[in-house]
Amino acid sequence: MNLLVVGASHRTAPVAMLERLSVSTADLPRTLERLLAQTYVGEAVVVSTCNRVEVYAAVSGFHGGLGDICAVLGDEAGCPPAELANHLYVHYDEAAVEHVFRVATGLDSMVVGEAQILGQLRDAYHVATEADATGRQLHELMQQALRVGKRAHAETGIDQAGQSVVTAGLEVAASRFDGSLAGRPALVIGAGAMGALAVATLSRTGVGPVAVTNRGADRATRLAEAYGATAVPFNDLTVALSTVDIVVTATAAIEPVLTRETVAAALALRATSRPDTPLVLLDLAVPRDVDAEVAELPGVLVIDIDRLAAELADGPAATDAAAVAEIVGSEVASFLTWLRGADVLPTVAALRARADEVVTAELRRLAQRRPDLTDDQRADVAHTVHRVVQRLLHSPTVRVRQLAAEPGGDQYTALLRELFDLEVPSTSQVDTVPDIAPRVSHPAPGGER
Asked: Which residues are catalytic?
């Protein structure tokens, strides 16, 4: 089995496409089940956040695995293959490991160094494990990715250099208020992980008073109490909007929460109380919480993932990014060493099984030819023969494990299978080429890109 990453992010797809690809937490098990039902996909983890949708998979063939994953993504998004291909990237084997580690450390995030992705990866791994969608390779990959992410934040200053998406969005919003949001009343819509981060960030940066609303009133109340904010009923959303200058919305709704009608009604109420003050809507949800038509209303600034990515595209890189990249490089090398060594184990097991079959067959023949041997004598002969075979196999099997851990080591494993005519499932297969051709960051088998 080989590792394959297929995905789209804020770097390759607009919010509209990410919305179509987005997989809700409730739908993750069903999507994993669909992936595992494909011919070439043996293991799968699906990561779906506000700015990326990615499938990490262990596949039995590059082309077949790519085709299977793209077919599921395209079907889920209701998107023609050709259109989908324009927004996808593909990472294979070594490049796949590097990509996952870069994601875990925050190097691939919209805001370099943000730490929320670690929790999102952990949640995706947990869901996949609960769905029995992970095996030896993805268990090891995800566990190591989480460890590498923690190491990067512990050993470098990437935490200080990196912001949260919320912080970055508020900095963009501050440009509409002379560079400061201090004392500006704010509303947070949503009481999930991103909503909690938004309330914490707003409280820490001196924005306020802060109000929280959520369809589930209990969660909004608990979150508000934790940070000294005020919980407001979701049914009073229009009134709440009319009293604030900043709105951070991050719900899991599949339809816009802030429609043109709702915001227009709030603006009408603001006309008397806050006539010259803009209303800034920071939409961190995918699918979007703010209807696209809201941006057309006068006095409203909508900052969604697309705009935020554009604003941050030319921002300064984190000063510790190079140190984190070095950590990623060394960790990728270590993981590949483990992976190559692990790949030889089925061949070694097959060799030892073959040896046991030969010994058992010969001992059976001996028993037929020498029925006069006692049970103790037969036991002594069997013990001696097994010891001889195990001692003969010890050095070559240890050495092939060492050689397999080196670049090109798979050749030694293949030679061992050929010499002893071992029946071992191949780690790659020749299969059909999919109908789409997304970008591949690492040469595919056969030299394709």
From this structure: 50
User: 108 with 95: CB under 8 angstroms?
Assistant: no
pTM comes to: 0.65
Using DSSP, state whether 87 is helix, strand or coil. Answer: coil
pLDDT in tens, 1-37: 789 999 999 888 888 888 889 998 889 999 999 999 9
Whether 342 contacts 400, CB under 8 Å: no
421, two tokens: 């005519």
Q: What is the pLDDT of residues 205-246, one digit of tens each?
A: 888 899 999 999 999 999 999 999 999 999 999 999 999 999
CA distance 69 to 84: 12
Side chain identity at 50, as an amino acid letter? C
Radius of gyration of the chain, Cα coordinates, nearest whole angstrom: 28
For residues 340 and 333, give the distance between their C-alpha atoms in angstroms, rounded to a whole number. 11
| Sheet order of strands, 230-231 included | 230-231, 210-213, 186-189, 246-249, 279-283, 300-303
**Contact assessment for residue 208 and residue 150, using Cβ atoms and an 8 Å cutoff:** no
Q: Are 137 and 143 in contact (CB under 8 A)?
A: no
DSSP 428: -
Contact assessment for residue 414 and residue 340, using Cβ atoms and an 8 Å cutoff = no
Of 143, 120, 124, 144, nearest to 44 by C-alpha is 124
What CA–CA distance (Å, rounded) separates 73 from 85?
10
Residue 336 corresponds to which tokens in the numbers above? 């590949």
Residue type at position 445: P
